[in-house]
Amino acid sequence: MFRRALLLLAVLGALVAVFLARQSTQEDQVLVSGRNNTVLFLTDSHHGLCNAHLATVSALIENHPSLEVHYASFSGIASDIERITEIARSANPGAKIHWHQFDGPSLVDELSLVGGVQDIVTPPGLPGLRAFADMVFFVMTPWSNEAHLSLYHQTVDLIREIDPAVVVLDSLLRPALDAAVNLNRTRAYITPNALTDLLSPVQPKGAHFWKYPGIASGLPFPVPWKDIPNNLFQQVYFIIRFLTAPAIKNKRSWLEQHGIPHAVNLFESYRQDVPWIAMSYPEAGFPIEVIPDNFRIVGPLVLDVAPAEAQSAELAAWVKKAPTILVNLGSAFKYEEPRAVIMAEAIAAVLDATDAQVLWKMRKTGEYGDGFLEPLREHAEAGRLRLEKWLEVDPMSLYKTGDIAVSVHHGGANCFYEAVLAGIPSVVLPLWADHYNYAQTAEYLGIGIWPNKTLAPDWEAAGLAEAFLETLSGNRGVTMRENAKALARKGEEYGGRKLAARLVAEMAAGGR
């Protein structure tokens, strides 16, 4: 009976996946291209979402000087655009990015209104399933109705004014996506997401449900037999919630009443004439059988605009003093005091036991003092610990010095692929959603460790310290380093940001 029920659910799931994949192909119109050799990028300003776009833009202005490149986003990345342009001008004085700043809140600004990134920290699997589903629906369209409408009209005006041959999109900047869709413009997506997160629904034999772990399940690949019912339930639950979410329906209805046809189109991304430029590549994830023709695999898209010495000579000199562990849990994460205490204790244990040093990107949330640093005081005074609120150097540029021995990160796509392309083993501390799949992927590929699994998303100091030490100098760490270097060599073969830039330039050359 159980086997029959399992089969029926798998078939149902496969049909839903096909529905999701093919829904948009029924009434697709021929896309409209604008002025020849003109490109408009439209992204949010959260670095976890837009770093792949920034990397592509840097390669565009370096290698395709005939293109007219426009970039529209929020104020948070204006300095990044300026920095990329200045560095490119050292080789090409005519390099230019036309900057357009949106008037309104970014995705992270909207998140902060409901508690910020800290409030989307969720456990893996069933305990966090409902919270994860709620979080996804909010992140898919976080803007208030009025802000969404305003950003939509700003984007429509920009597209009409610039008239680009191709619009390059961030799939989570929903108002801009709505504008490009409703103007029927030639467009492409650049995505940092793993191929399996994007494509497991279209894999054969309903594998999305019984083989591939749910994006926030925390389950290994392939899903063990004993965990298939659990995984199946999570996948079906999420699809049903996805298709019936009242928040999305209500927002779509309001926006359509206010002049946005086809608002919050959940199926647009499956159009076969709209390319997805993906920084993931098959060897760097769970095995996948089917990759649709509109997916272009380019390998890691990482921001690496100049050598570390050129970005911060002082920091580049510091990392050369000893093998360095980089602790960087992403651009949005901030430490509450309990997590800061645990991390400090773990780092102290590592520094007590080795001659390594630690570069810790650390920002606080909430009001608390520096007492958590007490176990590290002697190491800080000796110059073996460095705390930074923000890294002055692109992580990839730091990795290229050869002095970073271990990357400790949260399992965000950019952090994961930066370490992959650098050939550096990881300690992954997942906090929400796809982080759990990246943590499992690191272990599956033999390039990283996910400590404290049973406590996730929480930590304890002894488990962290053990993982840091094993990755730094243990037998398992040696194997992980060899695996990581082999995977890096494979990633370099794809072409990365230069290939992404070439694909965008080829689309732009098809304009009027």
UniProtKB/TrEMBL annotation:
UniProt keyword annotations, A-Z: Signal, Transferase
Pfam families reported in the protein's UniProt record: UDPGT
Signal peptide boundaries: 1-21
Organism of this sequence: Trichoderma ghanense
Name of the protein described by the UniProt record: Glycosyltransferase family 1 protein
InterPro entries: Glycosyltransferase_28, UDP_glucos_trans
